[in-house]
Specification:
By secondary structure, this protein is mainly beta. The chain has two helices and twelve strands. The protein is globular, with a radius of gyration of 20 Å.
Length: 191
């Protein structure tokens, strides 16, 4: 803690089935700079509702120029399943060593009313969770990269992160757009 005040004001709780979605205002009171823009809820304030998924790009964005687009995630069977250096493996390793191919997986963080965890994608449909987790993740890929992230938690609740923020030409944050509980009537849509 660096002594900066954090303020949180609960506004309302949405309850659907077994899920409680807190709606709150949060402020980071670390001071403002002349060029800082106020959000729709005020200077230094953030409206928190539902959740979001963000990513830290390691090297290049995985789906655009990185491990999910160029097949590097398929390198593991080559490395662990053979005992000699083949021409195919040598070519892949050469691309990695001269930084033509990205060999680092991006780190995604997902926040929802039921979970906070981080993962990397080991293939376009398979997450590797930082902490043990049986939730399922799927990515919706489009012409400009990851359009949406969907998560189904271990209780069968579905979370869609479909409001994408673009930074540096690729998606960096996806805000929650929908929660679907186990029953068809247990649904919340964020607009």
């Amino acid at each position: 803690n660096v002594g900066l005040a954090e303020l949180s004001i609960p506004i309302f709780d949405i309850k659907i089935g077994e899920i409680t979605i807190p709606i709150k205002l949060s402020a980071h009171l670390g001071g403002n700079k002349v060029g800082d823009n106020a959000s729709s809820v005020g200077q230094s304030w953030t409206l928190i509702a539902g959740g979001s998924s963000s990513r830290m790009v390691k090297g290049k964005p995985d789906e655009i120029e990185g491990v999910l687009s160029n097949g590097i995630y398929n390198l593991d069977p080559y490395v662990y399943g053979i005992s000699c250096l083949t021409d195919e493996l040598k070519t892949k390793l050469d691309y990695i060593s001269i930084n033509t191919d990205d060999n680092e997986r991006d780190i995604f963080t997902v926040n929802s009313p039921t979970k906070n965890n981080s993962f990397v994608m080991t293939s376009p449909t398979k997450p590797f969770w930082q902490k043990p987790d049986s939730s399922k993740i799927s990515l919706t890929l489009g012409g400009t990269g990851i359009e949406a992230i969907k998560m189904t938690d271990e209780m069968g609740n579905n979370f869609t992160y479909g409001a994408r923020e673009v930074s540096g030409g690729y998606g960096s944050v996806w805000h929650m757009t929908e929660i679907q509980g186990k029953k068809p009537t247990e649904k919340v849509v964020f607009t």
